[in-house]
Amino acid sequence: MSHGDSHSETDSHDVIVVGAGASGMAAATALHAAGLTPLVLEARDRVGGRLLSATTAHPGRALDLGATWFWDGEDNVRALAARTGVETFDQHLAGDTLLQEATGIRRLTGNLIDAPTSRRFAGGAQRLATALAAALPDGALRLSTPVTAVGVAVGRGGLAVHTGAEGVDTLYAEHVVLALPPALALERVDFGGALPADLARLARSTPVWMGAVAKVVARYSSAFWRDDGLAGAAFSRTGPLQEIHDMSGPGGEPAALFGFAPAGAVRAGFGEAVTTQLAQLFGPAAATPVTLHVQNWSEEVWTSPSSVQQLTDHSLFGHPRYQRPALDGRLHWASTETATDHAGHVEGALGAGARAARSILSALGVPRRHSTTATTTTG
Q1: I want to staple 141 with a disulfide (CB 3.0 to 4.6 A). Which of 1, 59, 316, 348 is the partner?
Q2: CA neighbours within 13 Å on the CB side: how many for 91?
Q3: What is the mean pLDDT of residues 65-72?
Q4: Which sequence spans correspond to the domains of the chain?
Q5: CATH fold of the domain at 11-49+128-209+303-376
């Protein structure tokens, strides 16, 4: 997929989807299956959004720097992985948990962190998005195309979408799907004051899932902690990582540990502090990972607004206001934060994208067809 060469200033589309993460790709897939020709505009030079996977030397294996798991009952994810050939496997559970406190480290019997129903993606969660992108028609996805403004198209109906891409100024669509965190949309997209005040306040206040955290992945030559009867699971009250999990692939390869830290903890010397902590917990071998990935999501300008660390009211996820289109029923919300079920999860993103697609198809009077795609059947 490419973002094309040149386009006229009067480029018109049935639907424009802003964002090529899980929710945007789910919406585009459902709309395309119904016979429409959606156009997906993505600010980054890749698809996936918060589905971001680092490749490894092990063929077909990747390490997730964003979304990691899905769980029982999340049927859209399970069906999508099966349909797109994305291999899944159970999270490693066997072994004991470590608790790190100021007074020392305690070993607790069993894995007290990881859920028995947790599953992972062997090739990385990002493969879900790349598989959906590959199934769209040529020209349906434009990368490196940030949207700067959305407003009513005066004199012609529908909505006008302004982008900053060279050669593209204004695009037009009957409907627009905002498949990005609401707070980010309010900071980066100019709506010309057309959004209702209550909706604008809600969007600016809604937290961004993972937006205020840093995810750290340490890859090793072997999962040596398992030999010591440890699950790779740890809680810490001293940090910098507050919780740690085994992130090794199937059969323990590639071997890795990962943990979360508050984004504000990432400063000079952070990497060294992490490896020191890992060595304290898991022994000297943990001090020298083969690679150390630090993914600070608060610094991702296409994920997190500048206010992300002040947004803490997670009760706003799935707010009823997000279920109703804005701008005369033409602007639809679709990100995991807007999902009424499984908000914050990949499942929530898929459901929100499918819900936006259903709303558009209903408004246009388009019957759904080819409904074998899981993302078009449930919310």
Answers
A1: 1
A2: 24
A3: 96
A4: 11-49+128-209+303-376, 91-120+212-298
A5: FAD/NAD(P)-binding domain (3.50.50)
Residues linked to residue 48 through DSSP beta bridges, in sequence order: 21
Q: What digits encode the pLDDT tens for the residues 330-344?
A: 999 999 999 999 999
Using alpha carbons, list the distances in angstroms from residue 243 to 213, 239, 273: 12, 9, 15
Nearest to 71 by CA among 128, 120, 118, 22: 118
d(CA 84, CA 296): 29
Conformation bin of residue 284: beta by default, left when phi > 0, alpha when psi is -120 to 50: alpha
CA-to-CA distance for 217 and 69, rounded, in angstroms? Answer: 15
Name the CATH topology of 91-120+212-298: Polyamine Oxidase; Chain A, domain 2 (3.90.660)
| Residues 278 and 287: beta-carbon distance below 8 Å | yes
Tell me the pLDDT tens digit for each residue of 154-207.
878 899 999 986 556 899 999 999 999 999 999 999 999 999 999 999 999 999
pLDDT (tens digit per residue) in 248-258 = 999 999 999 99
Chain segment 218-258, per-residue pLDDT in tens: 999 999 999 999 999 999 999 899 999 999 999 999 999 99
